[in-house]
Task: structure prediction
Amino acid sequence: MPARNTLTLGTDKALYVGEIPATGWHCHAAPVLLMGLSGRFALHWGLGQMETCHSALVAAGVEHLFDPRSETVALVYLEPDSREARSLLGPFRQRGGVVLDVAIPVAARSAMEGYLRNFDLSALLHCPCDDEGPLLDARVARSLHALRHPQEGRLARAGLAAGVQLSASRFNHLFRAEMGVSLRSYRVWSQVRLAMAGLAVSPRLTDAALHGEFSDSAHFSRMFRQTFGMTPSSVLKPLKEVTLLA
Result:
């Protein structure tokens, strides 16, 4: 399966297919499915833990280092409130936030591409992801809408908390308990995701930074590297296609 370097962004999922450099240590506010499409990759996490594998699920907020070893990879990111992400909370708790070799072997190229393109995790994963996980607290769900639609007016923590009739400290506690990451971490994640969506309109990283409401391209670069362990130019400039799904 040759590298195509494509990015697909859905409402609650995202898919990158292609080649990327080895990352530095990083963590992000969404669980990710890592798949080696042409061979095994190396994953480092925790206190000196490292494995080579064909696939892995990494929970939101888990610091890790991903070395593709020059293989073609597929990275599937799930918004923490998505049905699939909620259904994986149990396996993540049982395995300490990292589940290895969870995906079916890469066989027929057309079938694998179809599963990835349609985000068909029930066909991709050995572990079940159709089970209903715990429902997300309605107050947190309301705040997520505000964070993902900054054009409606960007709200600070106090404003988000007031919108659901909680104190700022209580809202912080509730958000972390429900999402597995802090409000600040998720805000950065949503901005980076919004910036990447801007690439569908303009391939310029400076325009993407503005689309994500970063103060400038340097700020976007810092937050992207903190989120993914890579510079935006190393992974976004080689993109051949960016697709936004309704």
Remarks:
- Residues 183-197 form the longest helix (15 residues).
- Residues 126 and 147 are 33 Å apart (CA to CA).
- The mean pLDDT is 90.
- The two ends are 27 Å apart (CA to CA).
